[in-house]
Amino acid sequence: MAELVPFAVPTESDKTLLVWELSSGPTAEALHHSLFTVFSQFGLLYSVRVFPNAAVAGPGFYAVIKFYSAKDAHRAQKACDQKQLFQKSPVKVRLGTRHKVVQHQALPLNSSRCQELANYYFGFNGWSKRILELQDLSDTEERGNENGMPLQKQSVKFFCALEVVVPSHECRSPGAGVAWEPLDQLEEGPLSFLMKRKTTQKLAIQKALSDAFQKLLIVVLESGKIAVAYRPCEEITDARSEEEQQDLIQVGYFSWKQYGQGEEEYLSDFSFEEEEFRLPELD
């Protein structure tokens, strides 16, 4: 059966592994490096998180590892469970299972994560982006406050429209993004203003790139070959604020999302299949 890999934060239980009975000798940083080295051989990893055991469990560590692909996570579990890997004693590896029905809104990956995922499946030269429009929407008109004093450059704001092109699959996906940064005329100097302008412009491009990738689905066939599916923007959950929707009406026909929530991981909704082990509570 083909597997769909979206450009979203993986929260599914079948993409999550729990690794425990990790030695207390190495530091958490050293364990993180060792775990990443071993498990990245099975597929692209979203995250590797190492935690100290609860006091009742004795010294040592456990880890939560997230893959983008459920098939990769399953292969890693089969290959690594009850193996010594990088330590003298074997570790235990289990796939996560939901212990309650929970529906989480899919969180989009940021632009750097999207590029990492695209590079892994399409290749570094397998896709490209093309900026269609980069518009300065900054508030630069002079205004007066209650005392009649002029105030200038109230905010720096950019709109970006671009498209992601995957030529080998004859696929194009449009995306758009808006970035906004307030300015304090009394504190901002010329250099600070230019830096904020450059940063805001770059952020608008990053948001547009992420938005374009949200409309694409990577299809991993049983043969291992890759296909790409395009989802029109109306099929994607709209999480825009009222202000952004107003901007959308003013700018044009593109749509964009605000990623203020950031990328999160939901660990509290998972349990792991092992009768002799209980996952320590996460703060």
From TrEMBL:
Keywords: Cytoplasm, DNA-binding, Nucleus, RNA-binding. It is found in: Cytoplasm; Nucleus, Nucleolus. GO terms for cellular component: cytosol; nucleolus. Coiled coil: none annotated. It holds the Pfam family DSRM_RDM1. One of its GO terms (molecular function) is RNA binding. This is RAD52 motif-containing protein 1. It comes from Equus caballus (Horse).
